[in-house]
Amino acid sequence: MRRRVVTAACLLALAAAPAWAVDPFEIQVYEGDINDPLQPGIELHTNFVASGRSASAFDGELVPDKRLNVTFEPSFGILPWWEVGAYLQFATAPSRSDSALAGFKLRSKFIVPKARTTPFVVGVNFEVGRGTHALGSEDWDTEMRPIFAYEISRWFFAVNPILGWALSGSTHAVPEFEPAAKVRFDTRLGFGVGIEYYAGLGRLDDILPASAQQHVAYLIGDLMEGPVALNVGLGRGLTDATEDWIVKLILGYAF
Description:
By secondary structure, the chain is mainly beta.
């Protein structure tokens, strides 16, 4: 009984606090691609929580269940190894007539020239942004996302060991850990199939109990050829702290 009470308390704290967790808007593993100098681009990120938490964790929350999350991401290449971008985020639950602006982010991505690292890709992406009350936090925060990728024959692997800090509100000196990873197989039919994994583990000096951690696995498909980039996925939460089922889509175009 005591263990159940502790677990429930951890889950409630995770839901109610503006702590870092799996990003509900940027469900993407960075692979190391980058715009050419002076090349603009645009991406549309969407995901729908088909089955998730329906009880509010605080007054005014736009709860995850049946919620559609939408992000517009313009980008622009500065140098062969430097790209900047922004995220404009929105959330809506049409069945409940709820909607909200969900914050924004600015980002700067650096990729080591691939001629020096092939078949590996190495880089880092920095972000700073601010959320909204309806999604759990109005604080400023920042993120550092290392990018490591490797391709051999028809297989592709990528890892993003993400670290994030709050910059306002109840700040912490110790970063939160939110790793993400991807494995993809090229079918040579114009698309690849694979698995993406996302986790929210808590502060590095105080990792959450397993029951309060967030772990989500996605079965994904990527368009490998054509004028647009397309990523689709069906996600399943693996712990009680994550949503049950999520469907996602990312559509991108570089001009």
